[in-house]
Write a structure and sequence with these properties.
With 479 residues, this protein is an alpha/beta fold. The chain has 17 helices and 14 strands. The strands form 3 sheets. The chain has an 8-stranded mixed β-sheet, sandwiched between helices.
Length: 479
């Protein structure tokens, strides 16, 4: 007569083929949830193997892993027992732990404006229009660049970026934006936000003053906060950042963040006198200017403006840009053009964030630029976005006749629609069926004149027309 099994009854595993991992997870979970309490004796490995129709070697492997992780205590001749003090308290089995955030973390995590929308809709569509992107050419460049890589490239680990891409970027920026760049002065990142965070940490001591456009880009504000900077909100008018006001508030600031080609979100362009005034301040006070050129390529009237960095004779301007907006968001590549003295320190700091972007994407982009495809794509998209802007302006003509004001600068893929009287923009946005944001929601201080922030880049013609019609109706009903 066979001996009866000695040990706890175990639940069945209803599956055609039981694997080692299935048994391990079953026993681990039953121990953690208290079904198998401390000191419970388990079946022998022979009995376990027979119970679950596996080999004894498999059963022994399961018990050895559970023992090594502290779930079991085993003794030759005595058996295998659930270890002590492993069953969690009853409260923790029924309620998830509430993990507190830091005050700074909670404040930063509460701002989701840097996240792209889950669904593109009017007028929260600042993403690229990928319908016209040359996917076939991109795939060919990807295949050619992969064929040109050897096994050594699989271990690519240069935190400054892939050399051929840095060389291609230097030529592209010199030709299209007037940026004075060499491959040695470029560091490639995974996003412009990562660039801003790394530079803020590298350049600022805690409590250093930093000028920030107001209203301005929330990602830059977050980067400065992470570095512990004291943010100095600087007003923006039709000529961009008001440098005189910034100097009155904090003349000895360490850094200035600015979007000179297309101010985010008002759309203003930094005027030539203001550019020279800003550079003179930086030179006089040994300060740094972070130039965020996030969509300066898309100037719809004439050629793109020369970058602020091109006017800088003292090495005070750091030029930051991204190609994700120009091509497609999934590209995840950005860059910084730096003074030579900052390249290696920033590369070292970069390795503490995420090392380097994937080499395959960098190599494909280098080929895409060198073969002239990026330049052709930018010209094509400049025309497409110019048509979209013209269509939106035409659709909103009745609002401008009623006192609303559209910015005159034809740049980028968003416009600011300024309100005719105080409080109207917020009233429209609060009741709208559209996805609308106000300029004041991007500001740290009250604005003299609020407006609506309309991002149209990723919208189709039909979506622009339908969104504009809805906006006209809502503005009329809110008068």
């Amino acid at each position: 007569m066979p001996k009866s099994a000695r040990g706890a009854l175990l639940p069945p595993l209803e599956m055609p083929r039981v694997r080692r991992a299935d048994i391990y997870r079953l026993l681990r979970d039953r121990i953690l949830d208290g079904t198998l309490p401390s000191k419970t004796r388990l079946l022998s490995t022979r009995e376990l193997a027979r119970e679950y129709r596996v080999s004894r070697t498999t059963a022994e492997d399961v018990y050895q892993q559970l023992e090594s992780e502290g779930f079991l205590l085993r003794s030759h001749g005595s058996g295998s027992f659930v270890g002590p003090r492993l069953a969690p308290p009853a409260a923790s089995r029924t309620a998830a732990a509430s993990i507190p955030m830091s005050q700074r973390g909670a404040q930063l995590a509460g701002d989701a404006r840097c996240r792209e929308p889950d669904r593109v809709r009017a007028f929260d569509a600042g993403v690229p229009d990928v319908a016209a992107f040359p996917w076939t050419l991109w795939k060919r460049c990807s295949h050619r660049s992969l064929r040109g890589l050897d096994q050594q490239a699989l271990n690519h680990a240069d935190p400054r970026g892939y050399w051929p891409l840095r060389a291609a970027l230097a030529r592209h920026l010199a030709q299209f934006r007037g940026v004075r760049a060499t491959p040695e002065r470029i560091v490639v990142f995974s996003s412009s936000q990562q660039v801003l965070v790394a530079l803020a940490i590298l350049l600022l001591e805690r409590d250093d003053s930093a000028w920030l456009e107001d209203p301005g880009y929330p990602g830059a504000r977050a980067a400065l906060k992470l570095a512990g900077a004291r943010i100095i909100p600087v007003p923006v008018d039709a000529e961009g950042l008001v440098v005189a006001a910034a100097r009155r508030r904090a003349a000895r600031a360490r850094l200035c963040y600015v979007t000179p080609a297309h101010q985010y979100p008002t759309g203003a362009v930094l005027s030539p006198p203001r550019r020279l005034e800003l550079l003179a301040w930086a030179e006089a006070h040994n300060a740094i200017v972070l130039e965020d050129d996030y969509d300066g390529e898309f100037r719809h009237a004439g050629q793109p403006l020369t970058a602020l960095q091109a006017l800088d004779g003292g090495g005070r301007v750091i030029h930051v840009g991204t190609l994700s907006k120009a091509m497609f968001l999934g590209l995840r590549l950005a860059y910084a053009v730096l003074p030579e003295s900052l390249v290696e320190p920033l590369a070292n700091l970069r390795t503490q964030l995420d090392s380097f972007p994937p080499l395959t994407v960098q190599a494909a982009l280098a080929t895409f630029i060198d073969e002239g495809h990026l330049a052709a794509h930018l010209r094509r998209m400049r025309a497409i976005y110019a048509e979209k802007r013209a269509r939106l302006v035409a659709e909103l003509a009745s609002l401008t006749q009623a006192g609303w004001n559209l910015g005159a600068n034809a740049v980028g893929v968003h416009v600011a629609l300024l309100e005719p009287r105080s409080g109207l923009a917020r009233a429209v946005a609060g009741k709208s069926r559209l996805s609308l944001a106000t300029l004041s929601s991007y500001a740290l201080r009250p604005l003299k004149r609020d407006g609506l922030f309309l991002r149209y880049g990723g919208l189709s013609w039909a979506e622009i027309e339908a969104g504009a019609a809805q906006l006209r109706s809502e503005c009329r009903s809110s008068r």
